[in-house]
Each structure stands twice: as structure tokens, then as C-alpha cells.
């Protein structure tokens, strides 16, 4: 073949190659531009669809997998650092640990320690005095949800008749949604008159992600976890001290009506009930039984012996069908007037017509 013919063929091939590469390059550029436009469109769509999404909150990959009309709720990150919310979580955690001390259960993280139903089961059994028919240890997700179902049905059967709104479910608890867990614990603490002071007016923000027509919609809601925990005695002591003496006089008349049968008389509510002896004797008189002396310390000397007596009196009250006193035995022993008034007023309400 002549060199000129070879050169012409090579030149023609190079032109074809350049033309092919040009087309390929143009195609790649167009794809890149299309992707940039698509990304920009997606960004704009998200900006339109999520105008209320707070800064710091991320749309999780699993949100894209939500089924139509399904939603996911999460605690706004800023609420995690809310001092009042952190105080509420701390108070509830310490309360659970106090209630379950005999079970040797220690809760450190409400989300991680409450989601499987084990702690909630033990707590409800302790507060209600009911034994639930559930497996003690469940490792599988199905087993955990079955236990939660049983526990929550028992909880709801107790709380619903008293007007509590159920803000929790098996799914929300098992998915470690802290707001649901806290709602449940606050309801239990208040219903069973836990001897704790819950922080007042605690609210948090939650982010709701919902899929509508294939598009993720987001909104931010405010959830009120606690309102005011002030009761009649808080109001009486803080705002109407002039009426306090009237209440104390009525309670003294009530207790002496019964204690006089044993030739005993009370003149000072704070101090004379602090060792628990008069409380125990009063319960025996109100329920018409003799309390064996070996069950309590008739002349208690130490703080522990006095706490034992008051705690034993509380047990007698519960045996008589009364709710567990809101006060702690230690508060009564420490001459806390409000705690003592609460206990005595509870007795007065239930036994004021007893002879």
C-alpha cells in the first residue's frame, strides 16, 4: 500500500475517533448537567416540603423508606439539651432505681433500659402490687414486643379510667422514642403518687416526618410532658398560711378522737408523728385491730428505726385500701410539715366518719 493511502486512512480514522469522543464527551457533560439540575430540583423540593425542619435535625435514610401515610416521630436535638427536660429524665431515672432497688435493677439510660419491657414490667408490678404473666427474659424482638404489649395493656387498664391520655405504644417504646417513655413514666409516677417532685411545665419539641403522595412532609410539634405538680398543701403553705392553723386544728381533733382511746394525746403534728409510733397505733384504731409490738419499734432511737416505723405505717394504710402516701417516710421523720399533713389528711378523708 502507498504511504499516501495509509496516511489518508489514518487521518480518516482519527477524525472518526475524534467525532466519537466528542459525542461521548458531550453525552457525559449532558448527564452531569442533568444530574446537577436533578440535585438542584431535589434540594428545592426538600426546601419547599420541609420549611419547618429545625436546624440540626437530619432526615434519616430510613425516612425515605416510609410507606405512604406512614410517619416517624423523633425528639428535636435542641430539646435533648433542655435543662428542665434533662432534670425530668434524671428525676424519673432516680425514682425507678429507688423503686427497684430490691430487684437489683439499675437504670442508667431510659431509652436503652426501658425499651424491651423488662424494667417497665418490674416497675408496674412494684407500684400496683400485681404480678404480670410474662416471660422474665426475652431476647428476640417478637418476644420483647409481646412482653411490652402485656405490660402496656395492664398499665392502660389502670390509667385510662382516671382520664390519662395514652401517649405511648408498643412501637414507640420499642423504637426507643424517649418522649413516649417519659410520658408513660410521668403518668405512672403521678397516678401512684410517687414520693418525688417532678419539674413543672416541661415541654419539648418533636419532629414529625410523614410521607404523603411519595413526598416527605415534616412538621415540628410542642409536647407538654408536665404541667404543675402543686397540690392543696403546696398552695396552703405557700399562699394561705393563715388557713394552715385551721387545717392543723381539724387534724389534731381527728387524731385525738381516736388516740384518746389509748390515753394518748397529740398537740404537735410535726414532731409527735415523726417516729411513726402514733401513726401505727392510729391505723390499728381506725381499722379496729391490734398491731403486734414485735412489728415495730415502740421506743425508736435511731433514724433507721423511725423510718422503719413510718414505712410500716404506710404499709398498713395500703393494706386498708388507701393509696400509697405521696410523702416519703424519711420526710415525715425529718419533721417535714407538708409531708406529715399529706399523710394525716389522707387518713382524715378516708376515716373522718369512723367512731
UniProtKB/TrEMBL annotation:
An example molecular function term from Gene Ontology annotations: actin binding
The Calponin-homology (CH) domain, residue ranges: 86-193, 245-352
Localization, UniProt: Cytoplasm, Cytoskeleton; Cytoplasm, Myofibril, Sarcomere, Z line
Domain of life: Eukaryota
Listed GO CC annotations: actin cytoskeleton; focal adhesion; lamellipodium; Z disc
Keywords: Actin-binding, Cell adhesion, Cytoplasm, Cytoskeleton, Repeat
Gene3D superfamilies attached to this UniProt entry: Calponin-like domain
One of the protein's GO biological processes: lamellipodium assembly
Similarity remark: Belongs to the parvin family.
Name under which the protein is recorded: Parvin, beta
Provenance organism: Oryzias sinensis (Chinese medaka)
